[in-house]
Amino acid sequence: MFIMFEGRVKNRAVVEKYVDNLCKALNIHRLGRALTITFQSVLDNDAQGLCEGDKDCADISIARKGQTFLVQMQALAHEMVHARQFLRGQLSSDGVWKWKGRNADNYSYTNQPWEKEAYRLERELFLDCFPFDEEI
């Protein structure tokens, strides 16, 4: 996995270790794909995080403004689930959202299977993967 960070990354060494741990926990560390994680002031619609991608690469954006560092890190765990979904081909969006090959444009946000999975896993991933023993 080729990982690139953009924007102002608070506690960069801790975040790098965390992302490495997340990649291993999500079993995407050996895929040989590209992952870009960008920290920026704000995102559209006041989102905490966003993820776009395909089978070759995933781009994650995390909002800094109005969020504590640890909230940003939990949002990063959520978006890493989406990165895995894109990189493994479960989720795609080329004009139409598809989940596991089926048209998924008709789901409301709260019923989207990819969001349900990300919300279900984000807290566990955060607690299991964040390097709490590191100085932040």
Layout of strands and helices, then pairs:
Blueprint lengths: L1 E6 L4 H14 L8 E7 L8 E5 L3 E7 L5 H19 L3 E3 L3 E3 L2 E2 L9 H17 L7
Parallel strand pairs: 1-2, 2-4
Antiparallel strand pairs: 3-4, 5-6, 6-7
Helix pairs in contact: 1-2, 2-3
Describe this structure in words.
The protein is α/β, with parallel strands linked by helices. It has one domain: Metalloproteases ("zincins"), catalytic domain (Collagenase (Catalytic Domain)). Helix content is 37%, strand content 24%. The chain has three helices and seven strands. It has a four-stranded mixed β-sheet with strand order 1-2-4-3, with helices on one face. Strands 5-6-7 form a three-stranded antiparallel β-sheet.
Short note summarizing the structure:
This protein has 136 residues and is α/β, with parallel strands linked by helices. It is built from 3 helices and 7 strands.
Number of domains: 1
Name of the CATH homologous superfamily:
Metalloproteases ("zincins"), catalytic domain
Cα end-to-end separation = 25 Å
Shape: globular
Low-confidence stretches: none
Percent helix, as a range, is: 25-40%
Average per-residue pLDDT, rounded, comes to: 95
Count of helical stretches:
3
Q: According to CATH, what is the topology?
A: Collagenase (Catalytic Domain)
The appropriate CATH architecture is 3-Layer(aba) Sandwich
Beta content: 15-25%
CATH class: Alpha Beta
The largest pleated sheet is described as: 4 strands, mixed
Strand arrangement across the biggest beta sheet: 1-2-4-3
Structural class: alpha/beta
* SSE arrangement, N to C: EHEEEHEEEH
Radius of gyration: 14 Å
Report the count of strand segments. 7
